[in-house]
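Handover notes (outgoing to incoming on-call)

Open items:
1. Thiolase-like protein: sequence verified, structure written out, both below. Nothing else pending on this one.
2. Nothing else urgent.
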Amino acid sequence: MVTRDFANWPKYYILGNCEEMVSNRISHFLDIHGPSATVQTACSSCPVAVHLACRSLHSEESEVAIAGGLANLTFFNPEGHSRSFDVDAGGYGRGEGADALIHRRLDKALADGDPIRAVIRATGANPDGWAQGVTLPSGEAQASLIKYVCRLT
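Thiolase-like protein structure tokens:
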């Protein structure tokens, strides 16, 4: 079996199949140049990816940015129902999916006549640091971030 006999693994098996390489594989396949990063911050991965895309555009490092996400945690309840706050709770309900958003600087999009679906005025990110637990969001940190981003607009 391939997983037990490392000598028989294809040369680039790990490199080509690790989750961290997804963005680089997409860049390679589509011949996209510029920053390419896979963001893995649990529940905040998509918002952090959008934040990084906006920063790249704002600094004029990029002319176009693609930020996407995939929810594939497989934290399913074996019965298919989450039963939140119930004594029989046992995992999350189904809710997996994928998305991708194309971002451009507003001035460039307007000049090129691109359809504008939304305008992002400001973004921010702030890890909780030491909090109740690594998987529990800090209300205080989230409030601080919201106030910070509102001041930017």
